[in-house]
Amino acid sequence: MTAPVVEGSGLSVTYGQRGHVHHAVVDLTVAVHPGEIVGVTGASGCGKSTTLRLLAGLEQPHAGTVRLGGADIWAEGRTPRPPRPGYVMPVFQDPVASLDRRWPIWRSVTEPLTVGRPRMSKQERMAAAREHLARLSLDHLDVRCLPTQLSGGQCQRVAIARALVAGPALVVADEPTASLDVTTAAGVTRVLREAADQGTALVIVSHDQDRLSVLADRILRMNRGRVVAEEVLRPLVHARRGTDE
Ligand SMILES: Nc1ncnc2c1ncn2[C@@H]1O[C@H](COP(=O)(O)OP(=O)(O)OP(=O)(O)O)[C@@H](O)[C@H]1O
């Protein structure tokens, strides 16, 4: 089996002060491998989004370690050290807030392509944005428009296109299909699965159990900050990708 893309061990996060302490995540251990889709579900407030932020290196745990690409990202203190820029791409719960309001969407979508790669012209970037947005049924959009001119569901798909465009090692997505109708959500599900088939690992938070059952290889159920159940839906995922054949 290949090395995990992300490995969280004994993670705990506590909010509040003495007397009013709230344990948002408690002793959480999880490893996600290339090409694997892990769903995280549970009641509102059980710690799903905090778990995503921990695995993305966006929040420092009060206890435990987070390894991205094998490196302990908090080893040197309060500044996370991911393996490389763009190694992990987040899709936040508020899709409008996750995009820069001043940037036309072609710029947001293709920004990850500008990091450590040959320079692309504006025309090339606009064409790449159109191509990736078309895969998410947004081919009718003018790529020069601003996020403020789009619906929440359209922004969500723009954010997903941005997250996937450069083939990151890991995508963490908070309710990526929440604002979408059934047909559009199915299209997004297909694109996320295709990304996994290309080797990207995904951690998806969702309240939608049916959607997760279709999408995920493994589902973690959380309650009061803890993983209380793990359901393996596709146990042969690593063999399927030929990593241990
Ligand atoms: N910055 C913060 N300060 C204080 N408490 C917080 C903070 N962030 C989260 N919490 C608390 O930690 C707990 C877990 O929050 P989290 O957002 O991870 O839950 P969730 O399962 O994602 O919820 P939802 O499904 O409603 O988005 C909640 O009780 C929340 O109120």
What does this structure look like?
It is globular, with a radius of gyration of 18 Å. Strand 1 and strand 2 form a beta hairpin. The protein folds into two domains: 154 residues, Rossmann fold; 80 residues, no CATH class. Helices cover 27% and strands 25% of the residues. The C terminus is likely disordered. The protein has 245 residues and is of the alpha/beta class. A six-stranded mixed beta sheet has the order 6-7-8-3-9-10, with helices on both faces. Strands 2-1-4-5 form a four-stranded antiparallel beta sheet, covered by helices on one side. The chain has seven helices and ten strands. The structure holds adenosine-5'-triphosphate. The site of adenosine-5'-triphosphate (ATP) has 11 residues, from strand 2 and helix 1. Keywords: ATP-binding, Nucleotide-binding, Transport. One of its GO terms (molecular function) is ATP binding. It holds the Pfam family ABC_tran. This is ABC transporter. Belongs to the ABC transporter superfamily.
User: What structural class results from the helix and strand content?
Assistant: alpha/beta
List each distinct ligand once: adenosine-5'-triphosphate
CATH superfamily grouping of the largest domain = P-loop containing nucleotide triphosphate hydrolases
CATH class of the largest domain: Alpha Beta
Radius of gyration: 18 Å
Helical stretch tally: 7
Largest beta-sheet characterization:
6 strands, mixed
What is the CATH topology classification name of the largest domain? Rossmann fold
What's the total count of β strands?
10
